[in-house]
Amino acid sequence: MEVHVSAFAETGPADTVILDASVITMDRARPYAEALAITQGRISYVGDRDGARRHAGPDTDVIEAAGRVVCPGFVDIHTHTDLDLFQDPDYLLFKNYLMQGITTVLAGNCGMSAMDPGILLSRLDDQPPAVNFGTLIGHGYVRTSCGIPADQEVPSDEQLQAMEGVLGKAMADGAFGMSSGLEYIPGISSHTAELIACASVVARSGGFYASHMRSEGDHLLAAVEEGIRIGRESGARVQLSHLKSDGACNWWKTEAVIAAIEAARADGIDVAGDQYPYPFFGWNPSIFIPGEHLAAGKPTLLGTHLRDAGRVRRIRAGIADRITRYHNGSGDLVVVFDWTDGTGRRWQGVPLSRILGERGIDVTPESVADLILEMLPDERDDAVMGTDLSTSDETVRRYLALPYVAICTDGFNQPWLAPCHPRSYGAFPKVLGEYVREKGALPLETALRKMTAVPAALMGLTDRGVLRVGAYGDVVVLDPATVGENATFDRPAAPSGIDVVLVNGTLAVDRRQTDEFRLGAGRAPGLVLRHLGAAPA
């Protein structure tokens, strides 16, 4: 359980000392230093080399940083790492997160939850993760657990009371708040009043409301205003998930989104956001289905709607319209990760245009729509996923410039699976390598703040995202001259330049000599994080 520190008493020599570093602490009282020490999982000294050496004993692990940057461990406020957490023991190692310097993750985003937060966190108490792990509760999970049909738009009073009960228990069990996925089933059916009622329960416990908004493209501005309204009327802090302006026809809306957010913030509404630094997003076939046909749920869509010729024509036209307006009619920009078609042929990491071409079919918006509809029945357990050009590099840079937007992966806990979206392997190093060093889009310290202190504050964590005496020993040693992403859609790979990662003082990654992932047998170093409003574990 997360315990916040009011005082720290050092006992004996330090377990780890880091020397000759460019320490960026994120502590306003002492923003820079050249050395630090860690004792019993917490920072015990921040200062100069000589002072740190005095904390060393015969068994202290001394790390010579050779001028490299030392900063707090990265905090990822937007992940989906709960969805397959207990599938395999390797998933608890969080290798693809630790290798990019992420030491704390928040799961349960986009309205999705794998299970009740209390059960999830209790299981992790018994099977500790390698990173610090907190969770939201998904609004979709809440709806489903209360027996509300996917296409029911307005819950009854009894159903709403049941939802509020589930939310209240989740918050008492340690959830940091509630997420919604309003482009997905069943969130797509919900009305704003329902979301306000749910967010009000979260607000009373001091939690926040994170939203995959109702639209990230054609209706983006209305979706942002809905999120702001939910914050205004519920009193909950609002986290707008993976900010983007989806589709070439909607890129102009970025400045209007920022203006709406900043007007709300000026009006006292606590609205912030997160962002992964890619113009491509992840998709499954149903994301292309116009909402009015999707709301009834997948069984109705597949079993009823797709057997109605008139409705199929409307669905096909809607998909073709999106391909035309968002992608100028091109199937080159929509890629499938892994799909086996009806003939048994497996397609991996290829654009839809190539599939059509190899079948001898002309690439048109309509033929792309037909292919997406062909894939739709195979969309189960993420069996069909891919990537889709969503936004522009200019838009990525614009959102990166906002001080209240945290960096995230929007990723999955994938121990070297392929093909994959590279954000699960390199989102944080990509910012540092591409947008800081190569493009000069923001200063290094600003980027690091958006990876550490900003997301920690948004979660309400006071002793992570900062290097000061008494804080937890989550530490990254990185080389700003070489840090960067190496993963591609075809090939997962560890990033460059992340040399050392410690979680609660335990060495988890050490790449000073070899590409070594140090975490071995024994108790994993991560802690289960419970929101401060929760009952004691």
UniProtKB/TrEMBL annotation:
Cite a single GO MF annotation.
hydrolase activity, acting on carbon-nitrogen (but not peptide) bonds
Instruction: Give residue ranges for domain Amidohydrolase.
Output: 61-182, 421-505
Keywords attached to this entry? Hydrolase
Q: Give the matching Pfam families.
A: Amidohydro_3 (PF07969)
User: What is the name of this protein?
Assistant: Amidohydrolase family protein
